[in-house]
Design a protein that fits this description.
Elements (H helix, E strand, L loop, with lengths): L7 H4 L3 H5 L3 H17 L10 H11 L28 H7 L6 H27 L1 H8 L7 H27 L7 E7 L4 E4 L4 E10 L3 E6 L2 E2 L9 E6 L2 E6 L8 E9 L2 E12 L32 E5 L5 E4 L4 E10 L8 E6 L2 E2 L6 E5 L3 E6 L8 E9 L2 E12 L13 E8 L3 E7 L11 E8 L5 E3 L9 E5 L6 E9 L14 E2 L3 H6 L29 E8 L4 E6 L10 E8 L5 E3 L10 E4 L7 E10 L2 E5 L6 E2 L11 E9 L2 E7 L7 E10 L5 E3 L9 E4 L7 E10 L2 E2 L9 E2 L11 E8 L4 E6 L11 E10 L2 E2 L3 E2 L9 E4 L7 E10 L2 E2 L9 E2 L12 E6 L6 E6 L11 E8 L8 E2 L9 E4 L7 E10 L2 E2 L9 E2 L10 E4 L5 E6 L9 E5 L2 E2 L6 E6 L2 E6 L8 E7 L6 E6 L1 H15 L5 E9 L5 E7 L7 E6 L2 E3 ...
Parallel strand pairs: 2-9, 11-18, 91-98
Antiparallel strand pairs: 1-3, 3-7, 4-5, 4-8, 6-7, 8-9, 10-12, 12-16, 13-14, 13-17, 15-16, 17-18, 19-20, 20-23, 21-22, 21-24, 24-25, 26-27, 27-30, 28-29, 28-31, 31-32, 31-33, 34-35, 35-38, 36-37, 36-39, 39-40, 39-41, 42-43, 43-47, 44-45, 44-46, 44-48, 48-49, 48-50, 51-52, 52-55, 53-54, 53-56, ...
Helix pairs in contact: 3-4, 3-6, 3-8, 6-8
Length: 1488
């Protein structure tokens, strides 16, 4: 196969064979070729053996290989060999050991090189032997034994070579393989149109395999932020980044960064996205996309008509800068053909909008949406949706207001708006903008202009000082680069937020811009290539013509001219010259670089001076003659601030908007528009009505508060600044202007006879701002389906919505229409009714009720009213049924509101679901049955309107009963209509109606049983504001009682007259009224005699709180009697009395004296809490009390039984607590305890008597605490048996102890004894047996309750204890019977030589021990000198008959039997008297 079919990345890159052919694949190829050669013995040409497939999978460990096209490369890198591309190469690498780490990739590369050297020669030999292999294949059909042996040997050889390669791989130096990334092919820049796709490619080599990361403007690209937008790919060393559906934001510099262990390398490319300007995009229409402005997609039938209806329209909208706003409406086109969709256009202020970064459009086939993604003041304006079909169009418009975002610093101006480039050249751009409507309360000093190069985010301020003129030339630009601009306003407080960024503009000569190919310019960041025309024979150009100064400010002057008529065939350029007024010295402005376009801006002119200008043409043939010079032009701002507009005049529009008109500013030049401001009359605060200048002399100000008085003012704006405000308009109340009412609807026949018919209809939804004054009915005859001419049924307007039309023809078919009238005039007629036949009704049941209305709509209830049928049938109507169903439910879902018929013409519907829409109908009943239902009511949603108020009942101070209803949302012309039982109260002598503003009052003149019923009130010209109040017999009785109380009022009391004692023993009488006016009076009466405020009686009245009190220092015997308080407050009065006589008075007097004594006591050191006791955790008794008002000199003395208790240390009054601790409390501690506090201010004492019952309580508590401290019962073995014991913290005799064995109380016997030793409570079981096993319980009884501790003496516990007892018992026996020396031997014996020594001792032991004597640990044998005796087994004697000095030494008696041995020791010292005396004398001589 030719190499031409190879992919470009395989055909042109040297690194392909090295980087894309794995070592495992080479091994598999070699094995495959060998197997194919061997299979020719038994298979025909082209058939692969199963054994080959198995070997391929076993040796490589990779997924199943797929044969690709055979590419023939030789043994060298670029020579042809067969090549198989593995399916899913990345999975193959993973299975064969490839991982993501750099070290393993290095090792794999090393293994590849090693295997390449080993198998290179063999792969070459395969190519040479191909012809021979195919000849063998065609002749051999079966394998011989020799061939099988050879195949086995070859497999063994292959495995051996693979192992050798792996060994070589381990010995290879890995570092020699590392290589830095290198771009073989770098990504190149692209220029594309919007909505197109673009793909960047690059090829990278290096080892380890480099990892490529894509960046946009040095920011890593995150594919998850916009799924599907960016699609990176890496295959076979080819890396790509695909950008789908390019938009203007994709214009940027892109970077591919390749990195591995050796380093990083980057390559750059730019993408410029160009936007269509003058033409539309060429794309096909589909659902969700706007169709191009063409009608080719509509059917070719010119007679087909499309009806367009725009419903669910968007309304006037208000937004804030930075918000997102969506405008939408439903579009219905009939017939609805999916293949032929209408064209949806969106316009703002007469300019068609196109999709952009700020504007998004969507058409779903039914709903059209315009989304403003980031609101700015530039987005304010009148938005219009146009729905176009071939047969016509439909449109809808509404205004969108955008208010300024909150200022970052309070007081700074709002941001400028509409920043765009007025003029652009290769080295300058003139930027213009519009001033904001809000200056922050301080005049704007000027503006700062910032620029930013496309592709960067760095903003540079262009002017050092603010410019006041809303136009500024930006210089210092780099030719060929694109820039965006923004503007900030400055006042004394600070700088505003920046404006919205302008569209990008390229710094190009206009001639270069015009000569660029393609559609007009898009933002450009790449290289600009301009193709020049071939020059012809040189002709010196002529003079430019029509040189004019198009714009002149103090910063720059702009010139424009027309090219000369004589200019040859080559391009021409221009030189501009200037001349200062008063001189004839012409200076060339651009001597080095001529101008290519016939437009030029001059900078650096002296402000205030005048100049003339002229232009010369030039080409390769020379410079032509100058043009005619301009007139002198002064370098200054010629544009003046416009004058203030005049005669601002508001007029009513709707209940939230007004139309403001004005006269234009006189002699205004380059007028941008007008700003309108509004202020609530009297507030002094002005708010902008528009944030984007509007042109014209009329503007509708929306968002006003209904019912408020507003004033308006207007000012003009141009590039020079804002004018003064116009004079303030007159204040005008915001309310809807009067209009004729909307058409009535729902025309139906209520009764029909042979020559007349009664019609009914529903009132218009819109009344036009005033009450309906009447209706006009028209009718026409329908003959053979053809309607005739309309005729008036009457001349004078009718007020009811039911009317009988006379003089009709029997059996004739008629149609009717109704018009409503108000103060503004007669409205449009209703749609023609259905066709009704005039004929006599003869049915027995009644006709349909009519005028079904609902009122008092709440979230779970409403009231339904109706009028009875005009046709009652053959008998009178006896009642009605009201039916209900949800608005979107089926006809089968009707259900009756009332189970029994009601004779009333209203009913309250309960238990509605909040937020659910319902419809109602009513049926009349007579004796013949139930009649035809009425027409359906209008759908109503069960919800409570915010701000809804209910009727309240009020009884004033004169006892007048009235119902009050308020409405805060009244419109002009709204009225309160009162009804009783939902029939209007027109003239009634029983009630009086008063209305003032938004409040009405229904006064009952003489309330009685005649006034029972439901009173309701409806507010006209509102959204159904209504309420009702039910007065039944119980409510009427309550109101009459309340009215009587108000006519004959009393001062309400919170509390009756009461008495209390104060801290000093004072007596306070007090009473509290609910309210007491400042003029309220109070009198205290004692035993029918008024008490005055004096030294004894201190009277005080607090009118604010209604508190009345009288205080007496002491209560004497003469004060026994009745105290009364009398209150008088206007017409209201009240009194309250308190009787203090007998025991009540004496007890109060005694308590007052006690309180007085207590107060005196507390003037010195005193007890706050008297002496009391508590038992501590260690069973001690703690006496404590709490004292107060002490000082350093205060002393404390404790007494017991009138004897002072002495302490070594002075008491510390820490926390005001005094304590006395009695440890090991017992009966001897019973007695009377007293503690005394005293100092120079006084003395106080507290006594605690611990005698009899009080002492028993203490002892019981001590016993209880002691019992709770008892430890668990433990088991101990002794030589006599087993002992059970428990310890307590403190034991006293009052703590009774009882032992139980298996719930049986134990009595003390010789074998089982109990007792107490110190703090140990024990039970001794002597000589235990098996019967002693079981549960033992110790009960500690504290005198009130028992506390138990138990132990199980069974099983292992008993066995171990019994074994220990046996051991101790044997040890005790051995101890009692062992041999021992009882006594009789001295420790030391001193004896004179020659004397006799006789010692005797007692010996004990059972059996009788053997006794022996020792001297210096050597056994002695008895003889005549030393006589040793042991008599009766008890007495041992030691006798030395003649003591010598040699007898001195240590002697011992050793007694021994089978239980033990014991030794008794003594020392014998023998002295000679003479020697001793001589020794004494020698010592005395030495001292002398």
């Amino acid at each position: 196969m030719s190499s031409v079919s190879l992919p470009f990345y395989q055909k042109h890159h040297r690194h392909y064979d090295r980087g894309y052919r794995s070592t495992q694949l080479q091994s598999a190829l070699q094995e495959y070729r060998q197997e194919e050669r061997r299979s020719t013995a038994t298979h025909s040409h082209g058939i692969r053996s199963k054994f080959s497939d198995e070997m391929l999978q076993t040796s490589s460990g990779s997924p199943q290989m797929k044969r690709a096209k055979q590419y023939y490369y030789g043994g060298k890198e670029n020579e042809a060999v067969d090549y198989i591309v593995p399916v899913f190469r990345e999975c193959h690498e993973h299975v064969t050991g490839m991982t993501g780490t750099e070290d393993e990739r290095i090792k794999q590369s090393a293994g590849y090189l090693a295997r390449k050297n080993i198998f290179g020669a063999e792969s070459h030999s395969v190519k040479m032997n191909t012809t021979e292999e195919h000849s063998v294949e065609s002749t051999t059909m079966h394998k011989s034994r020799k061939v099988a042996i050879r195949e086995s040997a070859e497999r063994i050889s292959l495995n051996k070579r693979i192992h050798e390669t792996q060994d070589f791989h381990r010995r290879l130096r890995e570092d020699s393989l590392l290589r830095m990334p290198e771009f073989i092919i770098k990504p190149r820049s692209h220029t594309v149109w919007e909505k197109q796709n673009v793909k960047l490619h690059c090829t990278v080599t290096g080892w380890p395999e480099p990892r490529v990361t894509w960046y946009k403007n040095n920011v890593p690209i995150n594919i998850h932020t916009d799924p599907g937008k960016y699609v990176p790919d890496s295959k076979f060393g080819i890396h790509s980044l695909e950008i789908n559906n390019c938009n203007f934001d994709d214009t940027a510099q892109y970077r591919a960064s390749a990195m591995n262990a050796k380093g990083e390398l980057s390559a750059f490319a730019s993408i410029v996205v160009k936007r269509f300007k003058a033409e539309q995009d060429d794309f096909s229409f589909h659902a969700g996309r706007f169709a191009p402005p063409s009608y080719d997609f509509f059917p070719g039938d010119s007679h087909m008509k499309f009806d367009i209806h725009i419903v669910e329209k968007f309304d006037v909208s208000f937004g804030k800068e930075g918000d997102t706003m969506s405008l939408g409406c439903t579009v219905i086109v009939h017939p609805n053909l999916k293949r032929f969709q209408p064209e949806i256009q969106w316009w703002r202020d007469g300019v068609q909008l196109q999709p952009s970064k700020w504007v998004q459009m969507h058409w779903s086939g039914e709903y059209a949406t315009l989304t403003l993604t980031h609101l700015n003041k530039e987005d304010e304006g009148l938005y219009t949706i146009r729905v176009l079909t071939k047969s016509g169009y439909e449109l809808h418009s509404a205004y969108v207001f955008v208010r300024d975002a909150d200022a970052e610093v309070a007081g700074t101006p709002a941001a400028p708006l509409d920043v765009y480039c007025l003029d652009a050249n290769k080295d300058y751009v003139i930027v213009t903008w519009k001033q904001p409507s809000v200056d922050g309360g301080s005049s704007i000093l000027g503006y700062f202009v910032d620029r930013c190069e496309v592709g960067t985010t760095h903003w540079v301020q262009c002017n050092d000082t603010p410019v006041k003129f809303a136009r500024f030339p930006v210089t210092g630009l780099v030719e060929g680069r694109s820039y965006t601009f923004r503007v900030r306003a400055v006042n004394n407080v600070g700088i505003s937020r920046p404006s919205r960024v302008s569209d990008p503009v390229a710094a190009l000569d206009p001639s270069d811009r015009a000569r660029l190919k393609g559609i007009p310019l898009a933002p450009w960041t790449g290289q600009i290539i301009v193709t020049e025309e071939e020059p012809a024979e040189g002709v010196v150009p002529g003079q430019p013509t029509e040189l004019t100064v198009t714009e002149a400010t103090k910063n720059y002057v702009v010139l424009s001219w027309k090219p000369p008529g004589q200019r040859g065939h080559e391009g021409i350029m221009y030189y501009v010259e200037k001349c200062v007024a008063g001189t004839e010295n012409w200076q060339r402005v651009n001597p080095e670089i001529p101008v290519k376009s016939p437009r030029f801006a001059l900078f650096d002119l002296a402000e205030g001076k005048s100049y003339r200008f002229r232009v010369r043409s030039a080409n390769s043939a020379g410079i032509g003659e100058p043009s005619e010079a301009t007139e002198f032009t002064e370098v200054t701002d010629k544009l003046d601030v416009p004058k203030a507009p005049n005669h601002a005049m508001p007029s009513r529009n709707t209940d939230t908007s007004m139309v403001v008109t004005w006269e234009e500013s006189k002699d205004a030049k380059e007028l941008v528009g007008y700003y309108i401001e509004a202020s609530i009359s009297g507030s002094g605060k002005w708010e902008p009505c528009n944030n984007k200048p509007v042109k014209g002399k009329r503007f509708i100000c929306h968002g006003l508060l209904t019912g408020q008085l507003y004033k308006f003012r207007v000012r003009a704006v141009n590039a020079a600044g804002l004018s003064e405000f116009s004079h303030e308009s007159e204040a005008l109340e915001v309310k809807a202007a009067l209009a004729s009412p909307a058409p009535p609807y729902g025309i139906t026949v209520l009764e029909s006879v042979h020559d007349s018919m009664v019609l009914g209809w529903k009132q218009p939804n819109f009344h036009g701002g005033s009450d309906i004054t009447g209706y006009f009915v028209d009718y026409l005859e329908v003959i053979d389906g053809i309607p005739g001419k309309w005729k008036e049924a009457h001349v004078k307007a009718i007020t009811e919505r039911a009317y009988r039309i006379h003089d009709l023809k029997e059996n004739m078919t008629y149609q009717f229409q109704v018009r409503a009238a108000n103060m503004a005039g007669v409205g449009l007629p209703s749609l023609p009714s259905d066709k009704f036949k005039c004929e006599e009704w003869t049915i027995a049941v009644p006709g349909p009720p009519h005028d079904v209305l609902y009122t008092e709509v709440r979230k779970n209830s409403l009231v339904l009213t109706w009028k009875p049928p005009v046709y009652s049938g053959r008998s009178e109507v006896t009642g009605f049924y009201a039916d209900i169903r949800e608005a979107d439910a089926d006809e089968e879902q009707w259900r009756s509101v009332n189970e029994k018929e009601t004779s009333k013409k209203y009913i309250k519907v309960q238990n509605l679901k909040e937020g659910v829409s319902y419809v109602f109908r009513v049926r009349a009943v007579n004796r013949a049955g139930v009649g035809k239902p009425s027409d359906l009511s209008e759908p109503v949603t069960a919800e409570t309107t915010p701000g809804t108020k209910e009727i309240t009942v009020n009884v004033d101070d004169d006892g007048i009963i009235s119902l009050i209803f308020e409405c805060a949302n009244m419109a002009e012309g709204s009225k309160f209509i009162w009804s009783k039982n939902y029939e209007e109260l027109i003239d009634s002598s029983r009630v009086t109606m008063e209305t003032k503003g938004g409040k009405t009052r229904l006064i009952f003149n003489d309330p009685g049983k005649e006034d029972l019923g439901v009173f309701s009130c409806v507010v006209t010209e509102t959204d159904g504001v209504s309420s009702s109040y039910v007065i039944d017999e119980a409510e009427l009785l309550r109101l009459l009682e309340l009215s009587h109380e108000h006519k004959f009022p009393v001062v309400p009391l919170k509390s009756e007259l009461a008495v209390e004692l104060l801290e000093k023993g004072q007596v306070r009488f007090w009473l509290e009224a609910e309210h007491l006016s400042p003029k309220g009076q109070c009198k205290f009466i004692f035993n029918d005699k008024e008490i005055k405020n004096d030294e004894k009686y201190k009277i005080k009245v607090d009118h604010k709180t209604g508190l009345v009190e009288m205080t007496m220092d002491t209560l004497e015997d003469i004060d026994e009697g009745t105290f009364t308080v009398q209150l008088q407050d206007g017409k209201a009065s009240n009194q309250s009395s308190l009787v203090l006589i007998g025991d009540v008075f004496k007890n109060l007097q005694k308590e007052a004296e006690f309180q007085r004594g207590e107060w005196i006591r507390k003037q010195g050191p005193h007890f706050v809490e008297y002496l009391e006791w508590e038992v501590t955790d260690d069973c001690s008794v703690l006496f404590k009390c709490k004292v107060a008002n002490i000082k350093k000199e205060t002393c404390i003395i404790w007494y017991k039984d009138d004897r002072e208790i002495m302490f070594d240390e002075k008491h510390d009054f820490k926390d005001g607590v005094c304590t006395l601790l009695v440890q090991q409390f017992s009966k001897k501690d019973a007695g009377v305890y007293e503690i005394v506090l005293k100092d120079d201010r006084g003395r106080d004492s507290s006594v605690l008597r611990l005698l009899e019952k009080a002492f028993s309580d203490v002892i019981s508590e001590v016993c209880r605490v002691a019992a709770q401290t008892a430890t668990d019962v433990k088991v101990q073995s002794t030589e006599h048996g087993i002992r059970l014991y428990s310890f307590v913290t403190y034991y006293l005799d009052d703590l009774k102890t009882i032992w139980y064995h298996s719930d049986t109380k134990l009595a003390s016997t010789e074998r089982v004894k109990s007792g107490v030793t110190g703090e140990q409570i024990w039970l001794q079981i002597n000589e235990p047996t098996e019967k002693d096993k079981g549960k033992y319980t110790l009960e500690l009884f504290d005198g009130k309750a028992g506390h138990k501790k138990s132990v199980e003496l069974t099983g292992t516990v008993f066995d171990e204890a019994f074994v220990e007892f046996q051991r101790l018992k044997q040890a005790a026996i051995a101890e009692r019977n062992r041999a021992r020396v009882i006594g009789g031997l001295p420790d030391v014996v001193t004896i004179q030589e020659g004397k006799s020594l006789n010692l005797t001792c007692n010996v004990w032991g059972d059996p009788v021990p053997a006794a022996s004597w020792l001297k210096n640990d050597r056994e002695l044998m008895g003889d005549a000198h030393m006589i040793l005796k042991f008599e009766s087994g008890k007495f041992a004697s030691f006798t030395i008959t003649d003591v010598r000095t040699s007898d001195s030494g240590k002697y011992s008696i050793l007694v021994k039997n089978k239980y033990g041995t014991e030794t008794g020791d003594f020392t014998v010292s023998v002295f000679i008297p003479e020697e001793e005396e001589q020794a004494v004398q020698e010592k005395a001589a030495k001292k002398k």
